[in-house]
């Protein structure tokens, strides 16, 4: 009978160790996943900031291009007509791009409609 109690105690100790090791592993895994989420969040935030700065610079470059175009055309057709020509051309290009976007969206809607 003493041998059965020793075996029973050993199983209890083993199960207690298994339980405690499982909790420690789960805790370490949660810490690891928190760290990964933090790294991912920081990376996404940094990428979003850099993309925003790039977009602002792109917008600035387009404005500089349009101003340069006005200054170049000013010599040929005068400042008022140069401004109207550049603004009109820009609005026309914007309209064409918006119509193309609308056509793409309509095509996509037709493709996914059952």
Throw out a few tags for this protein.
114 residues; mainly alpha; 2 helices; elongated; Phage holin family protein; membrane; transmembrane helix
Structural class: mainly alpha
Q: What is the helix fraction of residues, given as a range?
A: over 70%
Largest sheet: none
Distance between the termini: 74 Å
Mean pLDDT: 88
Helix count from the secondary structure assignment: 2
SS strand fraction: under 5%
Low-confidence spans: none
For the CA atoms, what is the radius of gyration? 34 Å
Domain count, please report it. Answer: 1
User: Order of SSEs, N→C?
Assistant: HH
Q: Give the overall shape.
A: elongated
Pfam families: Phage_holin_3_6 (PF07332)
Protein name: Phage holin family protein
Keywords: Membrane, Transmembrane, Transmembrane helix
Please outline the helices and strands.
Blueprint: H1 2-77, H2 79-112
Helix pairs in contact: 1-2
Written description of the protein model:
It is elongated and about 100 Å long. It is built from two helices and no strands. It has 114 residues and is mainly alpha-helical. Helix 1 packs antiparallel against helix 2. The protein has one domain. This is Phage holin family protein. Keywords: Membrane, Transmembrane, Transmembrane helix.
Quick synopsis:
With 114 residues, this protein is mostly helical. The chain has helices at 2-77, 79-112. Helix content is 96%, strand content 0%.
